[in-house]
């Protein structure tokens, strides 16, 4: 569904991604794990077209999307939830959702306001509240919900559990498992290993812009040396 092939990305002269190859199959939840500064956000931004790779290719289904502008990549079916929650603070929850609404996309789950409220019951209870009056965790849910209103085929989540209270992390894990059941393809970046192990089918570990590990999530959990070498565990 989504594939990166030998992607190199620079910020100015700084070589950030050095030949990143990864694949997310249809309906899979894949975790991209790595420490601070490893290149997780840069990888997601490269997929989304927010930074242009210096070489390599990004494919969505049969289409090569490398170097396209972000709005075209979004239109092709990629939803992106950045690490800083970008909601409209002066709009209500429902108005925020309305902003994200796009026509249904063939072969993708179709989301309505009611369906995203089923996914995130906490949002349903505050549907008329202003975005600016929500907690960080609630804003994170709203950002994901608004992205779903675009009916994406693939959703990129940048550290969805970061900074959330434990009870909200659990709700987030449940929501991601629900997205998988709906048939959505998910690529998430994370540093939270227990969270990833609860939701992901497979994992990649990135360190200094290089993929160091690739395999089923359960196999990674059985490799303490790998976890110790590349993650903060
Ligand atoms: N706009 C930028 N200009 C220059 N260097 C950048 C820029 N954004 C990120 N970097 C550098 O690129 C490297 C990778 O950053 P990136 O944000 O992808 O890491 P990350 O894995 O998402 O980290 P974190 O867990 O802290 O979010 C870091 O060394 C960072 O300092
Ligand atoms: Mg990041």
Description:
The protein is α/β, with parallel strands linked by helices and 233 residues long. The chain has one domain (2-230): Rossmann fold (3-Layer(aba) Sandwich). Helix content is 35%, strand content 27%. The protein has ten helices and ten strands. The protein has helices at residues 40-48, 70-75, 93-100, 113-119, 121-124, 136-148, 166-181, 193-199, 217-221, 224-230; strands at residues 2-11, 14-24, 29-33, 55-60, 63-64, 78-81, 154-158, 185-190, 202-207, 210-216. The chain has a six-stranded mixed β-sheet, with helices on both faces. It has a four-stranded antiparallel β-sheet with strand order 2-1-4-5, covered by helices on one side. A hairpin with a 2-residue loop joins strand 9 and strand 10. Helix 3 (93-100) runs parallel beside helix 6 and helix 7 packs parallel to helix 8 (193-199). The longest helix has 16 residues, at 166-181. The two termini are 31 Å apart. It binds adenosine-5'-triphosphate and magnesium ion. Magnesium ion binds at residues 40-41, 83, 158.
How do the helices and strands line up, and which of them pair or pack?
Layout: E1 2-11, E2 14-24, E3 29-33, H1 40-48, E4 55-60, E5 63-64, H2 70-75, E6 78-81, H3 93-100, H4 113-119, H5 121-124, H6 136-148, E7 154-158, H7 166-181, E8 185-190, H8 193-199, E9 202-207, E10 210-216, H9 217-221, H10 224-230
Helix pairs in contact: 3-6, 7-8
Bound molecules: adenosine-5'-triphosphate and magnesium ion.
């Amino acid at each position: 569904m989504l594939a990166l092939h030998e992607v190199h990305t620079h910020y100015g002269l700084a070589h950030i991604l050095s030949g990143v190859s990864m694949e997310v199959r249809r309906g899979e939840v894949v975790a991209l794990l790595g420490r601070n500064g490893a290149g997780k956000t840069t990888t997601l931004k490269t997929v989304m077209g927010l930074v242009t790779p210096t070489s390599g290719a990004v494919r969505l289904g049969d289409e090569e999307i490398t170097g396209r502008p972000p709005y075209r990549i979004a239109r092709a079916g990629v939803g992106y939830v950045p690490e800083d929650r970008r909601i409209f603070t002066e709009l209500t929850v429902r108005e925020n959702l309305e902003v994200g609404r796009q026509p249904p996309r063939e072969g993708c789950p179709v989301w309505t306001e009611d369906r995203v409220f089923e996914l995130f019951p906490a949002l349903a209870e505050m549907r008329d509240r202003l975005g600016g009056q929500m907690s960080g965790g609630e804003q994170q849910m709203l950002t994901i919900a608004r992205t779903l209103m675009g009916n994406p085929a693939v959703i990129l989540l940048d550290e969805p559990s970061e900074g959330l209270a434990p009870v909200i992390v659990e709700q987030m894990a449940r929501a991601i498992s629900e997205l998988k059941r709906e048939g959505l393809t998910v690529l998430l970046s994370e540093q939270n290993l227990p969270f990833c192990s609860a939701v992901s089918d497979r994992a990649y570990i990135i360190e200094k812009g290089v993929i160091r590990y690739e395999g089923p999530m359960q196999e990674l959990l059985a490799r303490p040396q790998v976890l110790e070498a590349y993650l903060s565990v």
